[in-house]
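Email to the structure team, subject: Neuroendocrine convertase 2 model.

Hi all, the expression group asked for a predicted structure before they design truncation constructs. Nothing fancy, just the tokens so they can compare against earlier work. One-line instruction: predict Neuroendocrine convertase 2, return tokens.
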Amino acid sequence: MRKPPLFLWKAVQQEGFIRRKRGYRDINDIDINMNDPLFTKQWYLINTGQADGTPGLDLNVAEAWELGYTGKGVTIGIMDDGIDYLHPDLASNYNAKASYDFSSNDPYPYPRYTDDWFNSHGTRCAGEVSAAANNNICGVGVAYNSKVAGIRMLDQPFMTDIIEASSISHMPQIIDIYSASWGPTDNGKTVDGPRELTLQAMADGVNKGRGGKGSIYVWASGDGGSYDDCNCDGYASSMWTISINSAINDGRTALYDESCSSTLASTFSNGRKRNPEAGVATTDLYGNCTLRHSGTSAAAPEAAGVFALALEANLHLTWRDMQHLTVLTSKRNQLHDEVHRWRRNGVGLEFNHLFGYGVLDAGAMVKMAKDWKTVPERFHCVGGSIQEPEKIPPSGKLFLTLTTDACEGKENFVRYLEHVQAVITVNSTRRGDLNINMTSPMGTKSILLSRRPRDDDSKVGFDKWPFMTTHTWGEDPRGTWALEIGFVGSQPQRGVLKEWTLMLHGTQSAPYIDQIVKDYQSKLAMSKKEELEEELDEAVERSLKSILSKK
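Reply from the structure team: attached below.
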């Protein structure tokens, strides 16, 4: 609204009235009554400012619950170190038929006992998803009427491809969502991902699971902090998984958060604050409860719970529908990244390099899911490839471009993007000093690889590694893509880029994107108009002040 000119201002007796901060809520104002003792400490469910948190910064599950969605009819598999299925807060929701122990090869995925309770991880994750409500025990699961299956597969000296593949493909017609809070070592120098059998199992899962609608794989993005990059984790950066990062209860990043362009969204976990109640409250081994569940390990199960609510709202959702819903309903809310700015991509979708498209909003997701129409068929196009060796300068950067028609005129034409992969082969004298950025034809810059100061590799490099970005979601891929690669360490390095292949994945139609673009353009035009009006008002005020001062 334009301000009146200075000469129209006059003294008027003002009346006092009430204004409230939006987002502030008293837990008693929300019509959710639970007698579980830890419920009021589960700030990630309903954040009223507990443990010095930011009121309103939560998963908005209250709205989904009030609409009647609690995860009923949905089964979530926790791929981990086992589940204490005798726990009184889990027993009623435990799906024994869908459970298995691949570490011991038996149907009883009970955690192996250790004096330090090392194998409590899976039990804690299970409680976040499916802990029963109103039973006076511990807290409440995000989807407290869902069923939880235990898939014990982490507790052996070494992982094998067969164990991973068997776990990921276990009971795909009964288990709807698989939650994985594990991956390659988060030491800042590992580049690793699924092997052949596991890749095939994941492909079969998204194509054949849930009666052809696709298994939904939720993955923790990693706990390597600023020393690591989750695009070096082939599980979190897979197109077939929904990679989830975390925020703490005041909206900042956790110190262990890894950033990368493949992260789709975020939920909540602990970090930075010493307040013992700033962690994640959930079930613990041997019938106990805890306030101290932590890491992106805690974030992924929360997301699995939100997706269970969405599946109850619409059991016809495919694995890709769930990704689209995540992009469209996640919110910036009050998330704050001190390193990476929030940006908008070419169609106006707001994203952040660490938080993805924002924090999951259960209320918004179930409402959109209820009437959601399955997304169109997915196509894959090789947008182009450069395979001539190119030297990376010791100082400065190597710039390369690829111009693509995105297979226009062919059956596999991609008009609206979902995932984009840059398949890269590069060697350097120090892999950890490499920095790789890619910019889309619509001007969206994705950071494919950040510096990893602990990675001293000088031999292996990256061999046909599929760096992935979700930040160009909905964009038109036709035009010129730019790759920028250089070194960011303190010492000069040498390197050679041997391959850059652009892989485009998406649809030929996506009506909702057109509406998003229209709304975005309308908002831009309106904001520019308001800026011009403000500039005009300020100019008038300056002129009037100048005239009055002369009088």
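Helices lie at 61-66, 121-130, 161-168, 196-208, 295-313, 319-329, 362-370, 511-550. Residues 517-551 form one domain. Ping us if the truncation boundaries need rechecking.
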